[in-house]
Design a protein that fits this description.
Elements lengths: L5 H37 L1 H10 L13 E7 L4 H14 L3 E5 L9 H9 L5 E4 L5 H9 L4 E15 L8 E2 H8 L17 E4 L7 H10 L8 E3 L3 H9 L4 E6 H4 L6 E2 L2 E2 L28 H6 L5 E9 L3 H15 L1 H9 L7
Parallel strand pairs: 1-2, 1-3, 5-10, 6-7, 6-8
Antiparallel strand pairs: 3-11, 4-8, 4-9, 4-11
Helix pairs in contact: 2-11
Length: 347
């Protein structure tokens, strides 16, 4: 058999190297493509957030729809609806927003998402990430839900202003709301029965977060009284020396009729949801307690979560207004207003 000459051997070697290089590039490209796909799928919310941050203020938000749009959702958003939404409509009069409550049940994140999937709302303000069951329900209807984080909120726990107790651990809070502790004397307080107030589980959002973080798959105790709104709960709490309630920190901390409590994972590390020194009810409303934003931002305070705008991604009209509304909140102007209303901006 004839042996190849030196020139032919060199050419074969070059071809072999070229083929190996080509296959390596193809293999690497596959891995890179997979990595890019995974990264992009994980960064959907971040990319959406960047859309608003690249816009300086409300006046420059593009492609704002004209007309009246219904929206709904979490009651934790009430301060934002009052301050931010009214200013959006003032500066962009072509857009009209109308908050709609569900019929026959308390408003909240979960009822809002149900209304969205029924075509009753253009977008929803939520205080919880979307659940897998909600994604699945949307898919069954041929729909796709999208969520965009826009702010950070924290839960504050409040008692009657005359109740002499310095704070609670998360374990003690769990024991109260599961009925294991029923008298304040068990926690170093007065001989007084505890009445625990909560909004119904069906409202979702903040209640879901509380159930997951505090109850940890346990049931609410029989001592818990359910109320429809934070306003209703605060009124009852102001008239009940043994009461306790949890709610959005911006709605709780500045109140004159209740006392927010420091919370912590350990008794020797309780963190106040308000800025020290504490302002007593006797000094209110001339002076009010202010939010401890530093502790919220650093997660030193133990009960903190995100606020989201949720909308239908593939329906052009609803998707457009939902993303546009998120963009309003993510502008520097929107984030500044979020801070002013007591929530924490994403920066």
């Amino acid at each position: 058999m004839q042996q190849p000459d030196n020139d032919t051997t060199g050419k074969l070697a070059l071809i072999t190297v070229a083929m190996a290089t080509f296959l390596a590039l193809v293999w690497s490209a596959g891995l890179i493509g997979k990595g890019v796909w995974q990264l992009s799928s994980q960064q959907t919310g971040t990319q959406a957030a960047a859309n608003g941050k690249n816009i300086p203020d409300f006046a420059h938000v593009p492609n704002v729809a004209t007309g009246i749009f219904n929206y709904g959702g979490s009651t934790a958003w009430a301060p934002l609806r009052l301050a931010v939404d009214s200013l959006i409509q003032s500066e962009r009069p072509e857009l009209r927003l109308r908050y709609v409550q569900p019929q026959g049940e308390a408003p909240g994140s979960s009822p809002g998402i149900q209304m969205l999937l029924k075509g009753q709302l253009a977008f929803v303000q939520t205080s919880q990430p979307l659940r897998s069951a909600e994604h699945e329900l949307a898919k069954q209807k041929g729909l796709n839900l999208k969520q965009v984080p826009v702010a950070v909120d924290s839960i504050a726990v409040a008692v009657h202003p005359q109740l002499n107790i310095s704070g609670l651990t998360l374990r003690q809070l769990q024991a109260i709301y599961t009925g294991q502790i029923s008298n304040w004397r068990e926690l170093g307080g007065p001989d007084l029965a505890i009445t625990a107030y909560s909004r119904p589980s069906s409202t979702g959002g903040m209640v879901d977060f509380f159930e997951a973080k505090i109850l940890q798959n346990r049931e609410f105790g029989s001592n818990v009284k359910f109320v429809s709104t934070t306003t209703q709960a605060l009124r009852q709490l102001a008239n009940n020396p043994g009461g306790i309630y949890y709610g959005s920190a911006p709605a709780i901390v500045p109140q004159c009729t209740v006392k927010p409590l420091p919370l912590g994972r350990q008794e020797d590390n309780l963190v106040a949801p308000y800025q020290e020194p504490f302002v007593p009810a006797s000094d209110c409303p001339q002076r009010r307690n202010k939010l401890n934003l530093k502790a919220f931002r650093s997660a030193e305070y133990p009960l903190t979560y995100y606020l989201y705008v949720v909308f239908l991604q593939q329906e052009e009209t609803t998707s457009h207004i939902g993303q546009t509304y998120a963009n309003f909140l993510l502008t520097p102007q929107g984030q500044k207003l979020i801070n002013k209303t007591g929530f924490i901006c994403l920066d």
